[in-house]
Task: structure prediction
Amino acid sequence: MAPYASDDSTTAGEVDEQRSGRRKAARYIVPVTVVGVAAATIGLVPALADSGDPDLPKITAQQLIEKIAKSDVQQLSGTVKISTDLGLPNLGGLESGLLSGAAGQGEGGSSADPTAKLTELASGTHTLRVAADGPDKQKLSLLENAAEYSVIHNGKDVWGYDSKSNEVYHGTASDGPERGKDQQPPATPKDFAEEALKAVDDTTSVTVDGTAQVAGRDAYKLVVEPKQSGSTVGAITVAVDAETGMPLKFTLTPASGGAAVVDAGFTKVSFAQPAASTFDFTPPKGAKVTEEKDAGKASDKASGGTPRKHPGKPFDLGEAPGHAPKAGKDFGKGLGGHDGMKTIGEGWNAIATFDTGGEGVPSGKAGGEFGGFIDSLGDKVHGTFGSGTIFSTRLVNALVTDDGKVYAGLVTKDALVKAADAGK
Amino acid sequence: MSRAEPSAPQGRGELRDRPQTARARRTTFRATLLRNELLTTFRRWRTVALLAVLAAVPVLVGIAVKIETGDGSSADGGGGGPAFISQITNNGLFLVFTALAATLPFFLPMAVGVVAGDAIAGEANSGTLRYLLVAPAGRSRLLITKYATVVIFCLAATLVVAVSALTVGALLFPLGDLTTISGTQISFAEGLGRALLIALAVAASLIGVAALGLFVSTLTGSGIAAMATTVGLLITVQILDQIPQLHVLQPYFFSHYWLSFADLMREPVYWDDLAKNLGLQALYAAVFGSAAWARFTAKDITA
Result:
């Protein structure tokens, strides 16, 4: 700074020192600049790379839905990123233990069993790779840390391979083109989109909301929204490839706002034929191979011999709990064939209800310590129906009244209480 | 600093016969400086001991797996342990990947931290730094040479682990075609190629630590302090990388994408994280390399 010029006591030597000191300090500009440039690049490049929404000919929602229906993509390979945030309480290991237990990973089960493995998709962010070549050859891989879990369908065989534990699961696919169609790899935007479109009826508004770029391809954005209020579903957005009509991205946002509950989209996609070797699988030497039949027996035994539906269709989404939250209408079915189950309301606001005939949720006093734990997961509510406990996630809410009735649906807590009041 | 353009390397005989241009002399000088640095570093007992420890890791892993599976059972372990460990019994080549996965989080970066931390501070500590600077090399060039030496050490250390693992794997376990983690088969030759690529990816993962260590080394006159700080930072970052609440920062930790080398064993190779890792390492090298330069060229050398 200037002061030294007017300061008589400053000697020439000190001036030099100050100058060189400043020159020395100036060198630190280099690393600081590098950090700045890096930060700017990280911040700006995604914004710059976003080349704006593509210009595509106008299309009506009806035409777009037909386009999806007509879409017949036989060959593709790509990478899918899927994030699920159902807002379930984070129970850590307990949760995954329960889930895999439910999925039949009993004694003698295999960690390569597709049903057990794919339940992992129900929470968190995952990267998947999909490849398909006609109805007989599909592959789905779940990319893990330094490991991978693959389900390979090639002709009659269905293989599950868990590279982490080096275990192989082997099943057979039933013949027939219809079954083959069922076995499209799950968890792709397409699967989600099909579920969503099943729910489209007069309680739903479907619009085309401009265009977007997904995985480097031009796409139309189809927005599906419930017309009624009271649903927890805010909107479902499906990005549909303009050329092939294939859904590339699926986003389900809750009515309460915040991050998407389900967000599944291609980050890379190619419609060229994947290499034939992709679908070849020979169990590696020394790998533990579990046959579908054996696994079925083992887990049946484990679950006390009760006959249970084993995954004849390992690719079927419905088998995996927590998957692809089905739209309101289907929701009731998902709860299983409980006797006396009724559906109140219609469309997105449908509420499934049934009478357990029991005492409801054990409360803090009656249920001892366990009751206290249950209470901590739910909220107590009171209404003209009496009182009950509401268990809520970001999408599904359920009300268990103290006299043992259960109301559940993709609706807000208020709607559940109202339904319970009306039912009284 | 004066910059020497790359020119054809000249043999010693030629040098004596022909009058040298100034530029050629500078190039030769730089090559000599690097060679001397490399010889000094790799001749140190400390370096030899570090490399010996690294070479011992695959031997231990290999023998442990062999004993564990001696009765014919497969190395199951329920999917625990370092990556790829369950496949070793079927194919010795997997020992290379397991050994690298086992040494990358700690042993390898620690060795690099020791060598990098020692680079400048060690010279200052033993009072040889000023003599190095008496030679007409210039501080920038000395620093670049030091960094080059550390990077070469990264590569050497990784290759020591890989070669030791390959030898042990070939001796104890069968070799042959291998299954990628995506479930496809590749030939043994291609497997070897992937192993080499993985070794290079692991070596490249270490250049961030190397730059960080070099920067710390310019801050202090004590070699021990520089090494301890570098290794301490390494452990701290690895712990922070495990804390879920810091997930916003974690993609910028130098160790965050280290395990991405395993993506080379997918079919097709998944490049996204590998590219992120290389980019991040380059960023660390640029930031801490230039910070080291700013510090070292402006520093008063008293020792």
Notes: Chain B touches chain A through 37 residues (CB under 8 Å). Chain B is about 65% helix and 0% strand. The CA atoms of residues 159 and 199 of chain B lie 7 Å apart.
